[in-house]
Amino acid sequence: MGSVVSVAVDACESLTAFVLPSGQHPSQVTIKQASYRIDVLIGEGGYSFVYKATDRVGRSTVALKRFAIQDADEQTRLLEEVSIHRGLCPHENIVALIEHDVISLKGKPLPEIWIAMEFAGPSMQTLVNARLAAGKGVERAIILQFLGDTIAALCHMHAQSPPISHWDVKLDNILQGDAYKLCDFGSASKTFYLCQNSQEVSIAEGELSQRMTLLYRAPETLDLWRKQRVDTKADIWSLGVAVYTSVMQAMPFEENPLDILNGVPKAFRDKGPASWAVGNPGNSLPADAQDIMALVMDHMLVADPSKRSDIFTVAEAFRQISQLFQVPARPRPGFVSAQKSRFAQ
């Protein structure tokens, strides 16, 4: 589920509810010589906070993330997150990182880390919730746009050298704007897991439970004794969950590892193989959703990661649905270094 709270403004109308308690939150901060006025607290989790703020010079609105460091290992991990995020920018479908700073505090042994980013939001989860509350579905055009934009963001991540897994793709981390943008890189990784013994399984279970959100976790991340590699393919499953939820207005699985390990979404159980196929007489989905769900079921929500499509194959399949989508180039063999094992000697 990542190490930070989302930048999404999920309740723009109720921002006034997040008043800044005196003494706990500063009224201004300087990050690498840029001064920001802190306007409102828009989210918090654990020892991290997200503020809406204003650049005192350019008057632009930004999002500020503030981390109260608890130990040296956490500081190292957060700086790695910043490094990954910065390396992915600029990209039109990734929330832009403007600057960061490590700020020492008088009387405290450990500093705080502050990150200034573009202000984007609300999240796709907010939109889905609003449509559900109104008794309406999410429009096909919106689903196609957020899917195409998120595919583009993941193609960019998976084309890095080595490839970068996001590992917390979910509706909360896909923000609306002139384009849909992927945010929160607190779970991002340049390594993969392939456990060989009980000690490695124990370590991986603890780390993955911190990085990933259960309802979006791929089967191979929940049963590490299967000895299936946990890598960028986990992002494909998570994206499939996000799209399925947008179309069906319900999660595909219960918040239970055994249900996810079943591998078949609730809506398609007991309906026979490929009941989601376009033109199948037993397909009860709306006509304008059938091709989207076929893409999800044939390429993304595939329980065996070795049979699940990579993001570039997903992009090629999506091109058949959205003719305006430009398929990002697949990295040329030999030009991208491979991910290393988390347990490499």
Automatic annotation (TrEMBL):
It holds the Pfam family Pkinase. Gene3D superfamilies: Transferase(Phosphotransferase) domain 1. Coiled coil: none annotated. SMART domains: S_TKc. One of its GO terms (cellular component) is cytoplasm. ATP binds at residue 65. It comes from the Eukaryota. It catalyses: L-threonyl-[protein] + ATP = O-phospho-L-threonyl-[protein] + ADP + H(+); L-seryl-[protein] + ATP = O-phospho-L-seryl-[protein] + ADP + H(+). The keyword ATP-binding applies. Residues 36-325 form the Protein kinase domain. This is non-specific serine/threonine protein kinase. The lineage of its organism: Eukaryota, Discoba, Euglenozoa, Kinetoplastea, Metakinetoplastina.
